[in-house]
Every structure is written in C-alpha cells, then in structure tokens.
Amino acid sequence: LPPSAAANLHSGAEQKVVFITARVHPGETPSSFVCQGIIDFLVSHHPIAKVLRDHLVFKIAPMLNPDGVYLGNYRCSLMGFDLNRHWANPSPWAHPTLHGVKQLIIDMYNNPKINLEFYIDIHAHSTMMNGFMYGNIFEDEERFQRQAVFPKLLCQNAEDFSYSSTSFNRDAVKAGTGRRFLGGLLNDTSYCYTLEVSFYSYILGGPTSAVPYTEEAYMKLGRNVARTFLDYYRLNSLVERPLGTTPKTR
C-alpha cells in the first residue's frame, strides 16, 4: 500500500465507519449473497482486507427483516410493513430492527470521535440487469460529484456492475428509504447508496451476451464492493476537486 493511501485512511483522530445493511425486503435473496461476499472478504487473509480492517470499522446488519425472511414474505415484515419506507420514524414495537439500527447510526453520528463515511443498503432488482446503485441529489454540486466516485470505482472493479444504470434521485416515493433518509441526516462527508443487483443476469459485451447470476457471482460482487473501499481512500486526495459525471457504460 502506498504511504499516501495509508495516510488518507489514517488521517484524523476519528474512527472511520462503513455501515452496510441487507435483506430489508425478505424476497430479495441475492442481497444476502452479496452481503456474504463482503463479509467473507473482510474477514479473509487477503492483504487488501487486512488494510481495510486496520483503518476502517465495518458495521454490518446482514438481515434487517428476519421475521419476514422466516415467514417467506416477499417485501413486508411480520406486521405487514415495508420496512424500507419507515426510516423517518420507525417504531420500536412495529419496526424493531429498523429502530435499533437507526438509533445506532444516530448515536455514531452524534459521537465526535466517529465519522460515518458510507451507508450502503443492499437490495435485488426484479427487472433490471447487472449491479448498479441509487444515490442522492444534493444542491452542493461538489458533494454530488464526489458521491459518484465510489460507483465509478466499483464499475472498474466489477464486470457485472453498471455505472450507466446507476442513478441519483430524490423521488418522493423513496423518501422513507435508508438511502434517502440518512442522506438528508448525515453531513457532507457521508455517502449513502442503495446497491441493487439483478435477480437473474448481467451483461458482458454486446446486448445479447447476458450471463445468468449464480450464488458465487453475487458473492464476487460483494468482494468487489469491499475491495473498492481501498481504491476510494487511495484516491481520496484526488477527489477534492470536482470530477466529471459522464456515465461509463459496459
């Protein structure tokens, strides 16, 4: 690891935190495999994983809707709620997992010794192909452009990730999602994303070369997500200036 990259990771006294959640929608099983890939990589002996463990704190809630998963629900919890629409005001009784995770995030946000730098919520998509992300729209043009850096880097690392399918929005229907709510709560050094991955296939090369996803392919995407954090911090000194937002297609 170049000294400059280590310096970017270790600068300041605060603890740098990456918070990852998955499976808030029980039927989106690919999200669990992607999350498993992230976890497996982070606890592995890979040298990149060791650097990440040395300099970052990863907090992972791999199943936000365990009762819905147990019951075989597609989208809702035991109480019939779509938990990913209740981030603004989750009930400790009706949405206990969401309430607990939100409180933990707020406690970290209010701790001056902790800098919550990334929030990524993992989902699966029933109609789109490839992996892609949703991000937020900000009035601050520099912050908006900085938010595009991570998905651009992930596109370089993962052949199944599409930056051209990645979009940034403030759709009112999504106001209660983790990505939207936390994007409005956290400060301008925090970046919040929804990571989506297709239920069925990704495209390599031409439009007819669709490759079916397998459990291993989903986990590989997860490993590539984890690896991308090192690339992000290695480039951290470069992204102080605005970067172009032209999508890179695959």
Distance between the termini: 29 Å
Shape: globular
Rg from alpha-carbon coordinates:
17 Å
CATH class: Alpha Beta
Q: Major sheet, described briefly?
A: 6 strands, mixed
Strand content: 15-25%
**How many beta-strand elements?**
8
Q: How much helicity do the residues have?
A: 25-40%
Return the string of H and E elements: HEHHEHHEEHHEHEEEH
Q: In the CATH hierarchy, what is the architecture at level 2? A: 3-Layer(aba) Sandwich
CATH superfamily: Zn peptidases
Strand order of the largest sheet: 2-1-3-6-4-5
Task: Provide the structure class.
Answer: alpha/beta
How many domains? The number is 1
Low-pLDDT runs of 5+ residues are 2-10, 237-250
Q: Estimate the mean pLDDT confidence.
A: 87
As for the CATH topology, it is Aminopeptidase
Oligomeric state of the chains in view = single chain
Number of helices: 9
Keywords: Carboxypeptidase, Hydrolase, Protease
GO molecular function: metallocarboxypeptidase activity; zinc ion binding
GO biological process, one term: proteolysis
Organism: Furnarius figulus
Description:
With about 250 residues, the protein is of the alpha/beta class. It has one domain: Zn peptidases (Aminopeptidase), CATH 3.40.630.10. The protein is about 40% helix and about 20% strand. Strands 2-1-3-6-4-5 form a 6-stranded mixed β-sheet, sandwiched between helices. A two-stranded antiparallel ribbon has the order 7-8. The longest helix has 20 residues, at about 215-235. The radius of gyration is 17 Å and the shape is globular. GO terms for molecular function: metallocarboxypeptidase activity; zinc ion binding. It comes from Furnarius figulus. Belongs to the peptidase M14 family. This is CBPC6 carboxypeptidase.
